[in-house]
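::Encoded backbone::
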Amino acid sequence: MSNAPHRLNKVFVHEGGISTPFIARWPAQLRAGSFSRETGYLPDLMATCLDLAGATFPKNFAGRATLPPEGV
């Protein structure tokens, strides 16, 4: 599926870069049909989800130390 049906973005998944479509649905916070030209950074997505959930990333999992998540 790659980025279909969005034009002027990545064509192949191996291209990398930040020009990747992102679709979010959050009725309590996002107006239906709204559009933003803000740039996003994929590692920020996890950090944002942790913040929204009021959760913290564990320093250890299954007895092993974890690397801290990237992003803000």
